[in-house]
TrEMBL record, chain B:
Ranges for domain Helicase C-terminal: 247-398
UniProt-annotated stretches for the region Disordered: 103-127, 814-833
Keyword Phosphoprotein: no
InterPro entries, alphabetized: ATP-dep_Helicase, DEAD/DEAH_box_helicase_dom, DEXH_lig_assoc, Helicase_ATP-bd, Helicase_C-like, Lhr-like, Lhr-like_DEAD/DEAH_assoc, Lhr_WH_dom
Protein name, as recorded: Helicase
Annotated SMART domains: DEXDc, HELICc
Organism from which the protein derives: Skermanella stibiiresistens SB22
Length: 245, 833
């Protein structure tokens, strides 16, 4: 492992990687969330012929980060496959790439809402959640519930954060953490995002948290107070009072 | 000889009677149009506004239908504006009613009800008024042949405004299909005066070529030459800025002295400010209204109606009023800010006083010194009757993709036959078979080298008959929900209290607002309260400096023709006598302290200022080309170790500043910058991303709407940026990326103009090192910090945001790091002036 840890979760030193993966150096563990493999072909099925390179692109990035960090264990935090039939649509070379990845190390497919039953024929173990030491790894964060002493790592929400610079707004994927709970960015090539200030995330992250925004060359850390909401949810007015909230 | 046949043999007695009952006599060009119809020729009528142009287009059809009444669609009228189609239909009603002609005229636009559309399909009216988009839709029906096979004439109004645009491409393809469905159908184009009539002849020809020999050109009577003045302000002439607020008192005086005035401006932001300022001055309470494309249709219709009734004294308008039916009452046109192009200026001036025998009156109001030169150049061009007009560009491949999909919906087709049909449309006359096949493959299967979508085709090719057909009925539904080439920015409705919707503003602007902020919109000062669904809620009034909505793509660059005229004027002091004294003085000082730019060369000045070194290049190629040049120069300077800090581009000049001085100007401006650097920058540029989004939507790769999801607020269902990144990496030569680069080269990046300039000035660059800023450079230096520069890298901006945070926490560090904030391709370093 090359880089030094840049965040602490429930007392555990972790490394948020520029690729969008999370590393636990002490345990030689690598975590990725929301690969959404074969999302492109899911759109193609209903007539939108998006470029069919998303699975290849996602796997190439995954192979790259595994090559750099040589983890002993890999956890895919759910929604690894875009839908139940996604694995059937994989091209043979892509399926073989996945099989090679899962055969070379301990590999865990955590179940997600898109893939409640990940395919068994591609190798790896399947689990609804994994607890290791002080941290629990699951697809979707649950309010109030932690695992193994309260630390939790999850995906599902595809968090993005926006900041303003020089009058312009910059929006990119991010890691979001309040010290106890970490929500990971999506790793898939065709996955959009939800602003971390969205009210859906409020019960999970609270008012004060930190984000690591993924730039092109490095990560940028900001406190939540520095972030900008997205428009749709920005200043939504409670229907009755008309007070800006 | 035929051509000497007296008019009355062409104009039947009942029509002659109708003309004389109105006190009219048929114009010569109207008779010429009748002759073209009699001979079965296509016709291009070029005439200034006024003078019964539209009637000339319809007259042959009305006579034919009067003499040979029949059912079924006879004439199709196509207008670029929905509102114009409606107005023309109303105007045509009066001869039809008064002559008791057996003709039904109807409109069909996006607003037409489903029931009426259905009726028009089963029982078409004799004359149908519609838009290019609605025509495309009708041509995709499986019964299109039945609807159109008896068509005898298609009239295209405001042809000059359609040809050369993507809508024009779509219409050209539609006309090619019509020619197959209705071989006897003639084409009639109505156009304002243009620089290249041959391009319009090609557009109308069924051969797609200007020399096809099947289009007769008819010239309308040219009216009295317009009387155009430049307002020489009593106030101090500003060095920079675009709002011309200093002159508005004098503009107000002109409005008061005239009957009805049209005040044209260049951007919607300008419209809001000029309107606001005129009302501040409006002690007489004159009825002055506002009209621009972001206002609600209802608001605009109200203004137009008030205008027709003659109850307004002035309207402040953007290009939203460039086209439209004639208002006889307008007797003065004011153009605030630079005209940007002669053709557009003439079109605007033509909206005053449509009586041809009287000169139109117009006043140009320059906002700054360079604009004085531009206005002067425009007036000279009008006097010498030279027009600007870009040479035609090939039709967009994205539009072709949409059309092919539509033709698939209409019925099975063979590739060879469709290729023949498509290349008979002028914009696609030069389309290679390879490009056609690539686009067809994209439509059918996505056209990806990986070829993994065999199972998900949109069109299937039959082995038996070699024909393409839609793979499922969903394909047709998807096409029909996404037809058209106008890709609007994401906008939100602006609602005042619980009352009316005032119009729409762009999402990006709303994102810059905080609750309580004020902004100018629809001529009112509004306070931003919040967002509800897709509506911006506002109250009247509020405190603080109002913001003004910025609208994407609303700035039009200076035309090449005007730029050339401005350069000519600068280089020839003998013509300066026509200029205001302040401008003459400015140019004389420039000659004394530095050099004057020459007509064919390029003047580049360098001078130190503070701790920085400035370079100013007098290119006159328009803002877009200058921005591209700025990006490329700063990349190159970065590599040469000159440490560039930023640049600013105006329509006239480009200024770049750096920590080290530029010495070798010739090699810096070498044409080879258009190679790898251009490619590398273009790929990263946000302009390419924006262009790709449009291409992806028009080509139907991304849907605006999907069956069953009509009512989502967001118009685009999938982020085009994600697709762009993946496609660029895995298939950089995909047909959609080729289409994107071609679009950008002529549009937002204006690479074509830049490359022309670099070729022109090669070996003619004059480098003038100066001890300090020159008079001519002052305006651009004043723009520093005011102009938005696009395309900064993500990391630069994030770095800056992070740095701000550090500065806030530890202000003492800020002083020590004074030169920060530049970076390649980026910044707006503060310039102390």
């Amino acid at each position: 492992m090359h880089s030094s840890p840049n965040l602490t979760l429930n007392g555990v030193d972790l490394l948020a990687d520029l690729s969008g993966a999370l590393l636990w150096p002490d345990r030689r563990l690598l975590v990725v969330a929301d690969l959404h493999l074969e999302k492109g072909s899911a759109f193609a099925q209903r007539g939108q012929l998006l470029p069919p390179y998303d699975t290849g692109a996602t796997l190439a990035r995954l192979e790259g980060v595994i090559e750099r960090h040589q983890p002993e264990t890999v956890i895919c935090l759910g929604d690894s496959f875009h839908d139940r039939r996604a694995a059937d649509r994989l091209s043979r070379p892509d399926a073989e790439r996945i099989a090679r990845l899962t055969a070379a190390r301990d590999w865990i497919w955590v179940t997600g809402n898109h893939d409640p039953e990940p395919p068994a024929h591609l190798g790896g173990r399947i689990a609804d959640a994994v607890t290791l030491g002080a941290l629990c790894f699951r697809h979707e964060a649950t309010a109030g519930a932690g695992g193994g002493g309260g630390g939790e790592v999850s995906g599902h929400y595809h968090p993005v954060a926006a900041v303003r610079a020089r009058g312009r707004r910059v929006r990119a994927r991010c890691f979001a953490s309040d010290g106890k709970r970490l929500i990971m960015p999506s790793f898939g090539a065709y996955t959009g995002g939800l602003n971390v200030l969205d009210r859906v995330l409020a019960p999970l992250l609270g008012r004060r948290f930190q984000v690591h925004i993924m730039g092109r060359e490095k990560l940028f850390e900001f406190p939540s107070a520095r972030l900008e909401p997205d428009l749709e949810r920005a200043f939504r007015m409670p229907a009755a009072s008309g007070v800006v909230g | 000889m035929d051509d000497l046949s007296p008019p009355d043999t062409l104009l039947p007695p009942n029509f002659l009677g109708w003309f004389s009952s109105r006190g009219w006599a048929p114009h010569a060009h109207q008779i010429e149009m009748l002759k073209a119809a009699r001979d079965g020729d296509n016709a291009l009528l070029i005439a200034p506004t006024g003078g019964g142009k539209t009637l000339s287009g319809f007259l042959p059809s009305l006579i034919d239908l009067s003499e040979r009444p029949r059912e079924g669609m006879h004439t199709l009228y196509i207008s670029p504006l929905k509102a114009l189609a409606v107005d023309i239909q109303r105007n045509l009603e009066s001869p039809v009613a008064e002559l008791r002609l057996p003709i039904r005229t109807e409109t069909r636009t996006g607003d037409t009800s489903a029931a009426k559309r259905q009726r028009q399909r089963s029982k078409p009216p004799q004359v149908l008024m519609t838009t290019p988009e609605s025509l495309a839709l009708m041509l995709s029906y499986t019964d299109a042949e039945k609807i159109f096979k008896g068509l005898r004439c298609v009239v295209i109004d405001e042809l000059h405004a359609l040809a050369g645009t993507k809508r024009g491409d779509l219409l050209a393809l539609g006309l090619a299909r019509l020619a197959r469905l209705a071989p006897l159908c003639r084409r009639v184009g109505l156009s304002a005066t243009v620089a290249h009539p041959a391009d319009l002849r090609a557009y109308l020809s069924k051969t797609g070529r200007a020399d096809g020999g099947d289009v007769r050109t008819v010239l309308g009577r040219t009216g009295a030459r317009a009387q155009v003045d430049i307002l020489t302000t009593r106030e101090r002439l500003p060095w920079s800025g675009r709002m011309a607020v200093h002159s508005l008192g004098e503009v107000y005086d002109r409005i008061r002295a005239a009957g009805t005035t049209l005040v044209f401006v260049n951007t919607r932001a300008q419209a809001e400010i000029v309107f606001q300022e005129l009302w501040r001055l409006n002690e007489d309470g004159l009825a002055i209204a506002l009209h621009h494309g972001s206002l609600s249709a209802e608001q605009r219709r109200k203004v137009e109606a008030a205008m027709s009734k003659g109850s307004l004294r002035a309207v402040v308008a953007t290009s939203s009023l460039d086209l439209g039916i004639d208002w006889a009452a307008v007797d003065l046109v004011v153009q605030v800010g630079a005209p940007k192009g002669v053709s557009r200026l003439l079109q605007r001036i033509g909206r005053a006083n449509h009586r041809l025998d009287e000169a139109s009156r117009a006043v140009l109001v320059p906002a700054n010194r360079f604009e004085v030169l531009e206005c002067r150049a425009a007036v000279q061009s009008i006097e010498s009757r030279t027009l600007d007009g870009d040479p035609t560009r090939p039709g967009g491949l994205d539009v072709l993709a949409q059309h092919i999909l539509g033709m698939g919906c209409a019925g099975a087709f063979a590739a060879d036959e469709l290729y023949g049909e498509v290349t008979s449309a002028a914009p696609y006359a030069g389309l290679s078979r390879q490009d056609f096949d690539d686009v067809l493959d994209f439509v059918a299967t996505g056209g990806y080298a990986l070829g993994s979508y065999d199972r998900f085709k949109r069109l299937t090719l039959s082995d038996e008959d070699g024909l393409y057909r839609p793979a499922s009925p969903v394909v047709s539904r998807q096409y029909r929900m996404n037809v058209g080439t106008i890709v609007a920015a994401v906008t939100l409705k602006v609602r005042l209290g619980r009352g009316a919707v005032l119009g729409e503003i762009e999402e990006s602007f709303v994102q810059s607002l905080l609750p309580g902020d004020t902004f100018l919109f629809a001529g009112q000062l509004l306070k931003f309260l919040g967002i509800q669904e897709t509506t911006v809620n506002c109250a009247k009034g509020g405190q603080g400096d109002p913001k003004i909505p910025a609208y994407a793509g609303s700035k039009m660059p200076l035309s090449s023709h005007l730029a050339d005229q401005v350069r000519a004027m600068l280089s020839d002091p003998t013509v300066w006598t026509d200029l205001p004294p302040a401008v003459q003085e400015w140019l004389r000082l420039q000659r004394l302290r530095s050099l004057l730019p020459t007509r064919d060369g390029l003047l580049v000045e360098t001078f130190p200022r503070g701790k920085q070194h400035f370079m100013v290049a007098y290119c006159f190629e328009g803002r877009n080309a200058h921005q591209t040049l700025g990006m490329l120069l700063t990349r190159r300077m970065e590599r040469a170790g000159l440490k560039p800090l930023g640049f600013v581009a105006t329509d006239y000049v480009l200024s770049v500043w750096s920590l080290k001085p530029v010495k070798d100007v010739d090699s810096l401006f070498d044409q080879d910058m258009l190679g790898d650097d251009l490619e590398a920058w273009m790929d990263e540029s946000s302009m390419l991303r924006r262009t790709f989004r449009n291409v992806a939507v028009i080509s139907c790769l991304i849907e605006r709407r999907h069956p069953g999801q009509e009512k989502t607020g967001r118009q685009v269902t999938f982020s085009s940026d994600l697709i762009y990144d993946v496609l660029r990496k895995y298939e950089p030569n995909h047909v959609l990326l080729r289409a994107t680069r071609a679009d950008a080269a002529g549009g937002l990046t204006d690479v074509r103009r830049l490359s022309d300039m670099l070729a022109r000035v090669k070996g003619r660059i004059t480098h003038k090192p100066l001890p300090r800023v020159s008079p001519l450079a002052v305006p651009v230096l004043l723009e520093v910090g005011r102009e938005q520069v696009f395309g900064s890298a993500l990391d630069d901006l994030l770095d800056e945001a992070a740095q701000e945070l550090i500065d806030e926490a530890m202000p003492e560090l800020k002083e020590a790091d004074g030169q920060r904030g530049g970076g390649r391709g980026g910044g707006q370093g503060a310039l102390p002036l």
